[in-house]
Amino acid sequence: MLMGSPNDIADAKQIVEAVPQAHRQDLVNCVGETSIPDAIDLLGACQGVVTNDSGLMHVAAATGRPLVALFGPSSPEHTPPLSDHAVTLTHPMICHPCFQRECPLKHQACLSELQVDEVIGALNALLEFSH
């Protein structure tokens, strides 16, 4: 399930297009279509959550669901998910954390260099531990 604000619709479209056609029927795209109460209910029903450093990350942490939180220019030292069932990932960079909304060096490597396998591996480890 994909969730986010109306500002995330274009990014969600890219994610959907990257999912192999054979698996798209398993994908639910709720981006731009949920209220905060809906999002809270949906997060609480998830088996696991992958999110960026956001308000919904903190909501997901509060539900106790296994959570992988991706940190780009922000720092898990300052705003970590408060859960024993959460891990944080970022790609170490000399400029991290810069706390800028747009990368001053124009590379966004703190996020773009995170590997999908790393994220999936972290989530799978959490899911195995929670069962």
Description of the structure:
With 131 residues, the protein is of the alpha/beta class. It folds into two domains: 34 residues, no CATH class; 83 residues, Glycogen Phosphorylase B (Rossmann fold). The protein is built from five helices and three strands. Strands 1-2-3 form a three-stranded parallel β-sheet, sandwiched between helices. Helix 2 crosses helix 3. The longest helix is centred in the last third of the chain and has 15 residues. The radius of gyration is 15 Å and the shape is globular. The mean pLDDT is 90.
**Fourth CATH level, the homologous superfamily of the largest domain:** Glycogen Phosphorylase B
Number of contiguous helices = 5
CA(first)-CA(last) distance:
21 Å
What letter string, H or E per element, gives the SSE order? HHEHEEHH
Number of strands: 3
Low-confidence stretches: none
Question: Could you give a quick summary of the protein structure above?
Answer:
Helix content is 37%, strand content 9%. With 131 residues, it is α/β, with parallel strands linked by helices. The protein has two domains: 1-34, no CATH class; 48-130, Rossmann fold, CATH 3.40.50.2000.
